[in-house]
Design brief:
With 288 residues, the chain is α/β, with parallel strands linked by helices. It has ten helices and eleven strands.
């Protein structure tokens, strides 16, 4: 639904653009078992997203879980798509309906209305990049899209327990969809620490504090950071769920080389005036 506006709908133009961004990035944190990637219009965040998608090794991936937040409907817990195919301008992606049914069978996941799924951009914006990096194995992998709402009480831990066996399997990849700080009066968020310098420098300091905490792989610290600063990280729920999932896995398995590292950070504009606004983007990858 967002092709032609948020990203190019013409196959050749989109392919060329994605190729250029991916060619500008090196393999540094690979093979990724999970990535964190932004979901804005590609002209704003495509170059940053490429840093995350580049770390994927397509030959080893058979299934991709894409976790995105809900922007338009209030959702508690997690929802899964009723669709069987996701279309992209490059090629169609096949939904893993078997895994979707298993998740529904736990009683913890809701089946979303197709209209809700189609309206949400956070998962959709990952798909053309995913299709591009996976094109060498395009008929050999499936996608499990999960919309992540508010995780109340032990919700995060419960979902983490359900998803941790999937994360443990090296044939599965997790894509976590999130932008970082949405700053400005239109986002009702204007935290400004003048000690950092200009507004955009204060935003970066706040974002990097959050990124450092995410790299520490502690869900508790990240939840505490969000509560203390209120940073408008729209994918906070999917990120928190990834942290819970890693914690559940580490609780039963030694992962001495488990490491989440952010590889790139950018802002839609460098703002110096309280009347302006910006959105931040970060790309990260988890290996173990």
């Amino acid at each position: 639904p967002h092709a032609g506006s948020w990203y190019q709908s013409d196959t050749r133009s989109l392919d060329k653009e994605l190729t250029q961004w991916l060619n500008q990035v090196h393999l540094t944190q690979s093979p990724a078992r999970a990535i964190i990637s932004p979901h804005a219009g590609y002209k704003f965040c495509g170059a940053t997203a490429a840093f995350a998608f580049k770390q994927i090794t397509p030959e080893s991936v058979k299934r991709v879980f894409v976790l995105g937040p809900s922007h338009h409907v209030y959702l508690t817990g997690c929802g899964v798509t009723p669709a069987k195919i996701y279309q992209t301008p490059l090629y169609d992606l096949k939904i893993d309906t078997e895994v979707v049914d298993v998740l529904l069978g736990t009683g913890e996941f809701k089946r979303l209305d197709l209209s809700v799924d189609e309206e949400e951009h956070s998962i959709e914006m990952q798909l053309p990049f995913l299709a591009k990096v996976m094109e060498s194995v395009k008929s050999n992998f499936t996608v499990v899209p999960i919309m992540v709402g508010e995780l109340k009480g032990d919700g995060g831990v419960n979902y983490g327990k359900i998803l941790s066996p999937y994360l443990e399997d090296p044939e599965n990849l997790f894509v976590i969809s999130s932008d970082f700080c949405h700053w400005g009066s239109r986002f009702r968020y204007t935290h400004y620490d003048k000690k950092c310098g200009e507004i955009y420098q204060s935003i970066e300091a706040l974002d990097r504090m959050g990124m450092d905490i995410i790299e520490s792989l502690s869900s508790e610290s990240f939840i505490e950071y969000l509560s203390q600063y209120g940073n408008t990280i729209c994918g906070r729920n999917p990120i928190t769920l990834l942290l819970h999932t890693v914690e559940c896995l580490r609780a039963r398995k030694e992962l001495p080389n488990c490491k989440l590292k952010f590889l790139h950070y950018s802002q839609s504009s460098q703002i110096k005036d309280m009347k302006d606004s910006s959105v931040s983007y970060a790309a990260g990858a988890l290996t173990f």
